[in-house]
Write a structure and sequence with these properties.
The chain has nine helices and no strands. The chain is mainly alpha-helical and 229 residues long. It has one domain: Up-down Bundle (Glycerol uptake facilitator protein), CATH 1.20.1080.
Length: 229
């Protein structure tokens, strides 16, 4: 239960910090942080939580990460569904707080909130195929970074930095394509609050693609460097 509470809090912070930077600060006139600021914000949420709760739960904060670690032989099957549940609930809680904050501004309209999308709902109009390839590839590389940085033979103490910087780079690459998911819990939390039903209608891609990418990474990394002598 302590691990699940940690995952709930960590994913809450990921969504409030990362998506909050997009909703509240990215487009602020003249002083807005833009794509680069949002990318850095997501990375900072992971770095800060890695050192805050990594020793409690492993700091997955992402159903795709839990699945990738399981496939890579780093995570117990019995904990998989409880972790995913805690992550999704934590993400929704983070989005709820973000919505309460954002709606306090006169004339607030949620619009797309910080939801992920493709086609007409891609930030720069990228197709479903582009979105699918992007999310699979980005999640694949994210899990390769995680599996490598947390390997028993990796330098100790630096995993959080490598993972956070990796997530920052992923956002710098893919925000224009899908608004960057690589995390089904993050995507679900925003789709619930976005205006209209398009975000929920496109949510399937942001579950399927990250999970496929994570599974592929778990298989590949376990082949390259299994967690055993």
């Amino acid at each position: 239960m302590k691990k699940l509470v940690a995952e709930f809090i960590g994913t809450f912070w990921l969504v409030l910090g990362g998506c909050g930077s997009a909703v509240l600060a990215a487009a602020y006139p003249e002083l807005g942080i833009g794509f680069v600021g949002v990318a850095i914000a997501f990375g900072l949420t992971v770095v800060s939580m890695a050192y805050a709760i990594g020793h409690i739960s492993g700091c997955h904060l992402n159903p795709a990460v839990s699945i990738g670690l399981f496939v890579g032989g780093r995570f117990d099957k019995k904990d998989l569904l409880p972790y995913i549940g805690a992550q999704v609930l934590g993400g929704i809680a983070g989005a709820s707080v973000l919505y309460l904050i954002a709606s306090g501004k006169a004339g607030f309209e949620p619009g797309g909130f910080a939801a992920n999308g493709y086609g007409a709902h891609s930030p720069d109009g990228y197709s479903m195929v582009s979105a699918l390839v992007t999310e699979v590839a980005m999640t694949f590389m994210f899990l390769i970074i995680i599996l490598g940085a947390t390997h028993s033979k990796a330098p100790a103490g630096f995993a959080g930095l490598a993972i956070g910087l990796g997530l920052t780079l992923i956002h710098l690459i893919s925000i224009p394509v899908t608004n960057t998911s690589v995390n089904p819990a993050r995507s679900t939390s925003q789709a619930i609050f976005a205006s209209g039903d398009w975000a929920l209608g496109q949510l399937w891609l942001f579950w399927v693609a990250p999970i496929v990418g994570a599974i592929l990474a778990g298989l590949v990394y376990n082949y390259m460097s299994p967690e055993r002598d």
